Amino acid sequence: MNTDADGGWSLVVPLKPLAVAKSRLAAAAGARLRPRLALAFAEDTVGAALECVRVREAVVVTDDPAAREVLAALGARVVPDAPAAGLNAALAHGARAVRARRPHARVAALNADLPALRPAELARVLDAALAFPRAFLADAAEIGTTFLSAAPGVELAPAFGGASRRRHLSSGAVEIRLAGVDSVRRDVDTGEDLAAARELGLGPRTAARWLPAAG
């Protein structure tokens, strides 16, 4: 993790309460394993992010007590979802929490469901984002978004959910086009997504929960 007082990215990672997170995964994982997988995804995402040399801090926005404890133990700063008004409000709240402490911080939103995330690939995305006031990375399906950045002095203005790639383009954010950053694009909503993430290589917490169940 970058500890330079003046440098490094602050990542904002939103996480729903585990009881309702990743509902579309229930068909593949079952009702009991689904919330445990949602937490494992977040653990692997945050753990990999904090290992990235470009990252100064990870700020997790969640009201889930179990997630709060586990992710704080990994080194994340956890803030409550005070707006309680959905994903984009949570991300904007997290960005404000970052800049309340560091007004000139470089901020990026990162999905919490990237269980194959690789620190070196995230570093490449962050380096590419430095060139633009706002930039984003589309998901593997090229419909949604897994990453959105804002330079110092620029509002994050998140528009995640559904066809967010189009909305972020329309908002003026520049799309990052890089080969070889599949782990940053592979979010997981369904069993098919999880199989694709497994092909890339699951992080240790997700692998420990999913591989014994998947066989």
3D structure, described in words:
- With 215 residues, the protein is α/β, with parallel strands linked by helices.
- It has one domain (9-210): Spore Coat Polysaccharide Biosynthesis Protein SpsA, Chain A.
- It is built from nine helices and seven strands.
- It has helices at residues 26-29, 33-51, 65-74, 87-101, 119-129, 164-170, 182-185, 191-200, 204-214; strands at residues 9-14, 55-61, 77-79, 106-110, 134-138, 145-150, 174-175.
- Strands 3-2-1-4-6-5-7 form a seven-stranded mixed sheet, with helices on both faces.
- Helix 2 (33-51) packs parallel to helix 3 and helix 2 (33-51) runs antiparallel to helix 9.
- The termini are far apart.
How much helix is in the residues?
40-55%
- Give me the CATH architecture, please: Alpha-Beta Complex
- Outline the low-pLDDT stretches: 1-5
CATH topology-level fold name: Spore Coat Polysaccharide Biosynthesis Protein SpsA, Chain A
| Coarse morphology | globular
Determine the N-to-C terminus distance.
34 Å
CATH class: Alpha Beta
- The whole-number mean of residue pLDDT values reads 95
- Number of individual domains: 1
E-strand count = 7
Tell me the strand order in the biggest sheet.
Answer: 3-2-1-4-6-5-7
